[in-house]
Structures are given as structure tokens and as C-alpha cells.
């Protein structure tokens, strides 16, 4: 697989002015995030076929054959045609297609995220936003779908090109109305929903996603929204690994939004010192945050 400085360049989504909303290459080497690689991808593909093949028309069945070439025979995402996102739309958005098919599809995408060419599929979807429109509904999906989505977003931090795709800021109209959507807006929602989710697996993925986002440069308003979720999460008694991930993220968000996030910590609490003594590595993360809090007025 190519190194961070050799990320595959594929035309990204284009804004109205004709320019991509984010640079094609990161300004600094990609820092691989926390990912989850325990898959039986052949079984996941078999599950996908079993659950949806009878619902597919001839063209959609051809997409399944092409997916077998990609995911089972390991021939690369390049074997998928330009219209593959229409097939994703059927799996993710047709109400009479089963939840098990959506779970299998997202797991296959998560498995494929290990390779640079996953961005080929993501950028194929830059017009219809099929994946992101599905992910935007995470808080209304069955728990098992929520877990699959959260893991997928974590695994997109395997490569620089895919993780940058999650941060695109260009907007599109939300299905059904409401505030416009963007990739970073949906990514933020997935991270918050997972961290504050109802199952241990969701929370684990959410803490990993917070840690992964902290390796990137995100805007102040995103930092504030993520920080508020972390503070709510800290109201409980999370395990050390998840505290470490989220404390590291909170420190990064404090360093980006130097006034807003520290003020949120002071107003909402708890103070990071709540976790002092949990472990030496957590203590090391707490010290600079507390030092910064000491210099920031409440208002």
C-alpha cells in the first residue's frame, strides 16, 4: 500500500467555483487512526448476496458480481463501474431492502478501507452523496447499523485520502429539508452519536473516532461540538482506554479553539482533573489542559 506521501490522487468533489473544497494532499504526513480489522469479508459478501440477490434487477446483480471481483478476488475497487453508487443507493435507501444487507455492505466498505483505492468509491459518490445521506440518519437506524457505520468511519482513517474525504466542507441540500449537509457535518454527527451511544461497541467506536478526528485540523465550531460530546461522556465512569482517547482529543480541540473549548470545559465540566491518577498517560494529557484552563476567563 502506498505511503502517506504517495496517496493516490483521484479527482475529488468540485465546488461551484470549479475547485475542490479541500486540498488534494494533506499538508503533513497522514497519521493513521485507530481502526478495526477483525473481518470475515468472504462471509460478509455471502451475507450481502443472500439478503438482497432476490431483490436485485439484472444490472444490480451485475454489481454484485463486480463486488466479488473487488472484495473477494482482491482485484481492486477499479473494477467497479461509475454507476456503482446507484447500487449503493438501492442498498442504503430502499425501504423494502433488509437491514442485514446494509450491515453487510457497510462492513465490506470498512474492510475495503484498508486500501487507498477506497477513495475511488467515495469520490464516485460526490454528486449523489448516497453514503453520507445514509450516515446522517445514524441516530434513527437500528443499533447494529449504527455500529457498522461508526466502525466504517473509523476505518476511513486508515489512509490519508479517505480521511480527508470525511472533512470536505462543501454543502448540499439535506433530503427532506433542514440544514444543508456536508461531509464534515455528517462525520461530526456520527462521532457524537457513537460516543454517546447505547452499546459498548458504539462507545468504543465513538471514542476511536474522536481520537482520529483529533489528528486532523478541523474548524473551531466542529471542535466545540465534539468537545461538548466528550464532556457529556466524561460525566460517567468510562474505562481508561476511552478516557485516554477522548482526553487526547479534548487537548487537541482546546489547542485549536483556544477560547471556546476551554470555556466549555469550565462551564459544562467535569474538569479533566476528575481523571487524575487513572494512569500515567492520562495524567500527562491532563496537565496541559489544566494549565490552559487556568489562563482562560469564564466569559
Give me the secondary-structure topology.
Blueprint: H1 41-52, H2 58-72, H3 84-93, H4 99-112, H5 118-124, H6 130-135, H7 143-155, H8 160-165, H9 183-195, H10 200-213, H11 220-233, H12 240-256, H13 260-268, H14 280-293
Describe this structure in words.
By secondary structure, the protein is mainly α. It is 55% helix and 0% strand. It contains 14 helices and no strands.
Count the DSSP helices: 14
Total strand count, please? 0
Report the sheet with the most strands, covering strand number, pairing sense and barrel closure: none
Strand content: under 5%
What share of residues is helical? 40-55%
Query: What Rg do the Cα atoms give?
Result: 20 Å
Mean pLDDT: 90
Q: Give the uncertain stretches in residue-range form.
A: 1-26
Terminal CA distance: 49 Å
| H/E element sequence | HHHHHHHHHHHHHH
Shape: elongated
Structural class: mainly alpha
Amino acid at each position: 500500500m502506498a505511503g502517506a506521501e504517495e496517496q493516490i490522487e483521484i479527482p475529488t468533489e468540485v465546488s461551484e467555483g470549479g475547485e475542490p473544497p479541500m486540498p488534494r494532499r494533506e499538508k503533513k504526513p497522514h497519521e493513521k487512526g485507530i481502526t478495526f480489522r477483525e473481518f470475515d469479508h468472504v462471509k460478509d459478501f455471502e451475507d450481502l448476496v443472500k439478503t438482497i440477490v432476490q431483490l436485485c434487477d439484472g444490472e444490480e446483480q451485475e454489481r454484485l458480481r463486480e463486488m466479488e471481483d473487488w472484495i473477494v478476488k482482491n482485484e481492486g475497487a477499479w473494477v467497479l463501474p461509475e454507476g456503482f453508487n446507484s447500487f449503493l443507493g438501492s442498498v442504503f435507501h430502499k425501504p423494502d431492502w433488509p437491514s442485514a444487507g446494509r450491515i453487510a455492505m457497510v462492513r465490506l466498505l470498512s474492510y475495503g478501507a484498508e486500501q487507498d483505492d477506497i477513495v475511488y468509491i467515495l469520490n464516485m459518490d460526490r454528486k449523489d452523496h448516497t453514503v453520507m445521506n445514509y450516515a446522517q440518519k445514524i441516530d434513527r437506524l437500528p443499533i447494529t447499523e449504527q455500529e457498522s457505520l461508526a466502525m466504517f468511519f473509523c476505518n476511513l482513517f486508515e489512509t490519508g485520502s479517505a480521511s480527508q474525504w470525511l472533512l470536505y466542507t462543501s454543502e448540499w441540500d439535506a433530503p427532506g429539508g433542514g440544514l444543508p449537509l456536508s461531509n464534515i457535518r455528517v462525520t461530526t454527527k456520527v462521532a457524537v452519536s457513537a460516543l454517546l451511544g447505547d452499546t459498548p461497541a458504539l462507545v468504543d467506536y465513538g471514542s476511536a473516532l474522536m481520537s482520529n478526528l483529533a489528528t486532523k485540523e478541523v474548524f473551531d465550531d466542529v471542535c466545540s461540538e465534539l468537545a461538548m460530546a466528550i464532556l457529556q461522556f466524561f460525566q460517567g465512569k468510562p474505562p481508561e482506554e476511552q478516557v485516554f482517547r477522548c482526553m487526547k482529543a479534548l487537548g487537541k480541540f482546546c489547542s485549536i479553539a483556544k477560547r471556546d473549548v476551554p470555556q466549555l470545559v469550565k462551564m459544562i465540566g467535569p474538569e479533566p482533573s476528575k481523571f487524575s491518577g487513572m494512569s500515567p498517560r492520562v495524567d500527562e494529557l491532563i496537565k496541559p489542559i489544566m494549565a490552559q484552563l487556568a489562563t482562560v476567563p469564564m466569559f
